[in-house]
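User: Mind token order:
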Amino acid sequence: MQSDPPPSSSNSQSSLARLCPPGWRLPILIGLGTLFGLSIVLLRVSNATSYLSDDPKACVNCHIMTPQFATWERGSHARVASCNDCHVPHDTLLNKYYFKAKDGARHAFMFTFHMEPQVIKVHEPGMAVIQDNCIRCHEHLLDEGVHLAVSLQEAETGTGKLCWDCHRETPHGKVNSLSSTQWARTPTLDPVMPEWMNKQLSKQNESENEPAE
């Protein structure tokens, strides 16, 4: 004699049936598979893994940042600091990647929907981070009294001038609009399309261009 299934098992099966009726299971699976596939393509096209590194080339995944990359690369800071050294907090590892993810999501949203201004300027949370990093690297200049425009205490409490109130063109030079610097020279990024797909498209184009007999 076959025993009845335990109540907990039948309850879980009935709950699953209510959440996903039999007639909807295939469409739901297809939809989930499509979303998963699109997510993989999006991660690949956006070169998402590059944002986990400190490589400055990740900043030019969005082509509107090419002037900033070009001016940094040709300035004195390129020899001693990367983009993240200035634009990401370094107090804790958790805060570093939290700020990086939050700021990156904001940048990606604005770039995707073409909401970027003609003249790109740092927003308020980023200003505090940059100021802290200026002090982190150049604290000895303030501590030793070499820099007379602002004291270390004023810089740390934000009561004095910000560093770039005087050093406005460090390290990105004079701020220009996007349309005036669109031809700034930057490194060529790796292609996002895999090699096998390039070959397949080339074969397809060749077959389409063959003269008809």
Summary: Residues 16-47 form one domain.
